[in-house]
Design goal:
TIM Barrel, 11% strand, alpha/beta, 11 helices, 9 strands, 321 residues, single chain
Length: 321
């Protein structure tokens, strides 16, 4: 009750409203030993219980329509997922429905029906390998140890940042080199299928575009970047037979991952709004094409709630507008 009151004061309705947009990626069936901070079903169920008691959860597209009109209720919030993992359908959807809550899933369409994102190729290569070391010469690094769980974690924390912002072809080559060194069979069921995307929408969830191949737009040729944005929207519109009005920037950090030119692209392509991964809460003057998102990873209810509260009342994120 105390936190609910605090959120009402920090996020009133109407002209002074604040919209908290939460971001998730995966909901594992069981805890992931490599990434224990990622929620499993039990943890996600717990988080939704907290959010439901503190906030008025609104579909993101409706919240975006109401925000500039000063029509949001107090304690407004929306839930989103990025990338399009299959567990958004198999694990998260039943929990969302049990709580009576809505989420919007931003789908990178190039990985539908058996694809795999570059970071998951890295993660699963390291997770599944029985080698003692991974050859990282492609990144001009020494061989990296992967014999123990701690070594696997440490190696992934080095590999992912080292590869993330490479140009697309360089990134693809580096990931392929790591995968060859691991000598494992990689999974082809991590991402949503076309059937599951349709089922998510039919269940009442929202669907948004997230490019085709999840490139870092800031290091992608301008023509290619525009094609990635528009083609992901067009593919989803074909699958669902309806207009797609929302977009999420891959990785989503201002300057590092997207730039003003990409904001202009999204606007010119006719999207209604776009979301970033910059922390903060939206307000009536927020740029609809750079809406912030934030989710605490605290396991304690009060720490989680206090961090959400600080985010609602914190500084406004930088935006290109």
């Amino acid at each position: 009750m105390l936190l609910r009151t605090a959120f009402s004061l920090a996020s009133p309705g109407g002209r002074k409203a604040r919209l908290s947009i939460l971001i998730f990626h995966r909901v594992h069936a069981r805890p992931d030993r490599l990434f224990p901070e990622e929620p499993d079903c039990r943890r996600f169920d717990e988080i939704l219980g907290w959010l439901k008691s503190w906030f008025n959860i609104i579909p993101l597209d409706q919240a975006i329509q109401r925000l500039p009109r000063d029509e949001l209720p107090a304690r407004a919030a929306a839930i989103t997922f990025d990338d399009g993992y299959a567990d958004n359908f198999t694990q998260a959807l039943p929990i969302l429905k049990r709580h009576g809550l809505h989420a919007t899933i931003f789908v990178a369409t190039g990985f539908l029906d058996g694809g795999r994102m570059w970071n998951d190729t890295l993660i699963e290569s390291v997770r599944r390998t029985e080698q003692a070391f991974i050859d990282a010469q492609a990144l001009m690094l020494d061989d990296l140890p992967v014999g123990t769980l701690a070594e696997k974690r440490s190696t992934l924390h080095k590999l992912i940042p080292a590869i993330k912002h490479l140009a697309p072809r360089e990134r693809e080559a580096a990931v392929a080199s790591i995968a060859r060194s691991a000598r494992v069979v990689l999974p082809d069921d991590l991402m949503l299928s076309t059937r599951q995307v349709k089922a998510l929408r039919q269940s009442g969830m929202g669907i948004g575009a997230h490019t085709v191949s999840h490139p870092i737009l800031a290091v992608t040729d301008a023509k290619k970047a525009r094609e990635e944005i528009s083609a992901s929207r067009d593919a989803l519109q074909t699958i669902l037979g309806e207009r797609i009005g929302l977009f999420a920037y891959p990785n989503g950090k201002t300057d590092a991952d997207y730039r003003r030119t990409h904001v202009d692209m999204v606007r010119s392509l006719g999207f209604d709004a776009a979301v970033t991964t910059q922390p903060g809460a939206c307000h009536a003057e927020s740029s609809l094409y750079e809406l912030p998102r934030f989710t605490p990873w605290d396991r304690n209810k009060w720490r989680f709630g206090l961090r959400m509260l600080l985010n609602v009342g914190g500084q406004r994120p930088r935006a290109f507008r």
